[in-house]
Write a structure and sequence with these properties.
Length: 502
């Protein structure tokens, strides 16, 4: 029996040593340091249990103190990540698509990004961005505000009704405790989907069901889906069956294609809702009348994938930003007071926030930017080295994944003095280009930035004008990377109706 135990132990030890030796010999990034990692599992256990923002900060701290400009992380995503530390490097990595190209890892999770802006490169990206930018002109952004106002007003009324039904025992006044992420997700999803494509209500229900299916595919077991995609034989094993996922993908594809075709027929027949007030309508008009554009129009497949791309970006990260900004406003009464004073001074009709109102709300803009710096609605973006190259003095092999982790630069005292202080005033003057990375940087930066900010500002105007916000209990921060950056524990904000200035 003892001999068997010794044999098993030595076999495992030999296997482990062989693996470590193989990894050492084959790795092209051994010259870049990494935190201590588990054999086989690498850094994955840390990502399972720890706050992701704090985890990256803890990983980075010893290397930053040692004057290093990079470190390696492997959370079992493929390939291994080289994380930037030098504040000057994101401008190079994100601003030079000839040297660093976008990763296509999401294609391994779901097939609805392959032909859209999130995935295409070079001339195809330039072409699509030019065509899609017609949906984000000032005139179009102003039209989209109708959806933000209506959906926001409906939610505010529900909050008022809820507050009237409860009396808080600490302030002895009508108030309600709100799970802000849940309600903001509902707002952001509805605004995004209605702005992307106008449909009759019966068709809209099927459309939204399909889009929610996409988000479920993204959030449910992403690691294992990547594993199944990378190792083909795994899906044939009993635990690797992927039939339910494939069925869901087919249903989503069918539903979205039906919506596109329905919109096309509405435009051809000049039906109600066929005007160019949404993204899909603009794309289909380009197909039907190519004389108005100087590029090859988007195909139905490209429209489908961009529809999914914009929806995910527009509702997931928007709800994250709204949640963290509301949390920050509730946590800092002095900032909330100043913000409410500006809103009361600038906005004439809280139920109908205008494009002009948004442009004049300077302090609100500063608060949102500081929230995105401090809390980060999204945390990182990846690029692949298109060729062997150098970043600074460090050699980077072709195909290496480079990660720009926004929080490492947003909380860097060289870039933002006193980074641990929540201070909107730091954005009163323009910050250094490439230091604030909330919407990315360079040619692949977020095309929907203004759409998202307009919606966020419209909703926050209504919330701050109608309610005094406070925290009854401070939530434990355990931020997790999904699509946006969310807290594991729900963030509850106490809303107390306040007298509005009409």
């Amino acid at each position: 029996m003892l001999e068997l135990v010794i044999y098993i132990f030595t076999s495992i030890l030999a296997l482990l040593l062989s693996y470590l030796l193989y990894e050492r010999v084959t790795s092209k990034t051994n010259h870049i340091p990494q935190p201590w990692s588990w054999p086989f599992l690498k850094h994955y256990p840390y990502f399972v249990e720890k706050d992701h923002v704090k985890l990256y900060a803890d990983f980075a701290e010893p290397f930053r103190k040692a004057g290093k400009e990079f470190f390696r992380v492997n959370n079992l995503s493929l390939p291994e990540q080289v994380v930037l530390l030098n504040p000057e490097h994101p401008k190079l990595v994100l601003g030079r698509p000839d040297l660093f190209v976008r990763s296509r890892a999401l294609n391994d999770v779901i097939p609805f990004f392959e032909h859209g802006l999130l995935n295409v490169r070079g001339d195809q990206h330039r072409r699509q961005k030019k065509l899609l930018s017609q949906a984000f002109t000032p005139a179009m952004l102003s039209k989209y505000l109708a959806a933000s106002n209506k959906v926001g007003n409906d939610k505010i009324q529900k909050w008022h009704d809820l507050a009237k039904q409860h009396t808080d025992d600490t302030i002895h006044a009508p108030a309600a405790l709100i799970d802000v992420l849940a309600d903001y997700t509902d707002i952001a999803f509805t605004v995004a989907s209605k702005s992307l494509v106008y449909m009759p209500e019966q068709d809209y229900q099927e459309f939204t069901k399909a889009l929610l299916g996409v988000t479920d595919l993204l959030k449910d077991g992403t690691f294992w889906k990547v594993l199944f995609a990378k190792i083909p034989f795994v899906k044939y094993l009993p635990f690797g069956t992927d039939g339910a996922r494939q069925k869901s993908i087919k249903m989503i594809d069918t539903s979205i294609r039906k919506v596109i075709e329905k919109k096309r027929q509405m435009i051809i027949n000049s039906e109600e809702g066929s005007d160019d007030n949404d993204l899909v309508g603009i794309c289909i008009r380009g197909q039907l009348d190519q004389s108005k554009i100087d590029e090859t129009p988007l195909t139905d497949l490209e429209i489908r994938d961009n529809l999914v791309t914009f929806l995910i970006g527009a509702f997931d990260t928007t709800s994250s930003c709204l949640t963290w900004t509301t949390y920050a406003i509730a946590k800092h009464p002095d900032i909330q007071k100043k913000l409410r004073e500006e809103i009361n001074q600038v906005v004439e009709d809280f139920d109908n926030v205008t494009y002009t109102d948004i442009a004049n709300l300077k302090y609100l803009d500063m608060v949102i930017k500081e929230s995105l710096r401090y809390y980060n609605a999204s945390i990182r973006v990846g690029r692949l080295a298109a060729q062997d190259c150098h970043i600074g003095d460090t050699w980077i092999p072709k195909g290496q994944m480079i990660k720009t982790v926004f929080s490492l630069f947003h909380m860097n005292e060289k870039t933002f003095p006193e980074p641990e202080k929540f201070d909107p005033e730091r954005f009163r003057e323009p910050v250094k280009i490439g230091s604030w990375l909330a919407f990315g940087y360079g040619p692949y930066s977020c095309i929907g930035k203004k759409f998202a900010l307009n919606e966020i500002k419209t909703v926050l105007v209504k919330v701050v004008a109608n309610f005094q916000l406070s925290l009854k209990n401070e939530p434990k921060l355990n931020r997790r990377i999904k699509v946006g950056l969310f807290n594991e524990e729900p963030i509850h904000v106490l809303i107390q109706p306040t007298k509005r200035q009409e």
